[in-house]
Predict the structure.
Amino acid sequence: MRTPHGIVETPAFMPVGTQGAVKAVTHRDLDALGVEIMLSNTYHLYLRPGADRIARLGGLHKFIGWSKPILTDSGGYQVFSLAARRKVHEDGVTFRSHLDGSEHLLTPESAVEVQAQLGSDIAMVLDECVEHPATHTRASDSLERTVRWGPRTLDLDLIWFDDLELESSRLTLPHPRAHEREFVLLLVRGDHSLNEIKAQKVIGAFRFAGEKEILEALHCKAGYIGPVGAKVKIVADRSVAALSDFVCGANEEGFHLTGVNFGRDLEEPQLADIRNVVAGDPSPDGKGTLEIARGIEVGHFF
């Protein structure tokens, strides 16, 4: 599947980040495990912290610091699981919040509108989730209501947060209504690692390009990419700017360039802090250097 925040190879395992976080697992862990898409829950995000607040902060991806695709459910399952707290009717479902008892109306239209505010890559239409066991008549009536609800969302004039070109560390995929995509090459030293959250603050939401996209744009395989002669936007970590006579990919399979220098072999790039810190880096207060130690997280706040 091709989405505004990246490609998802199917079949795919989709971890559940109910409120934008998978319990006991960091985004970095998910990335290391090869997770390509996360599921978040519209009902819980709508009630707390609120879709309006998430929208004002730039959408769910920026709010939680996740640059890959997100699928949001319609909120229907959680609402229908409230049993005595909800009432289903043709317009939608009226329910009371499990947090404070306040009354809300979720309609097919509002379910999609909330997901638009969240900026999800894949949105679900509102459906009625039937309890089990259920009679044939009960299941049939529920199915027919869901089928009637679906078309009501087709004519909505919605603005999605991803209705922009999404810049990438190597590639930016556009929203389907855009016409172009922009490749961005991020440079870090070989002994450093990219900090995706820092990079996102510099170039906006992004995803990494796939091998086919790199081949299409730069005409070489991923392992041989370099900044010399690359006709793409380049952003370099500040530590890279201090390098001289360095080695980099030659944008040709099987070859690397040596003795490369900024100002002679390529123009000075845009500089930014885009790497993870390492032991020995200056401390934020300027009074010493950083030490790296491992620890165990023992609690979460959601």
Observations:
- The two ends are 30 Å apart (CA to CA).
- Residues 187 and 222 are 13 Å apart (CA to CA).
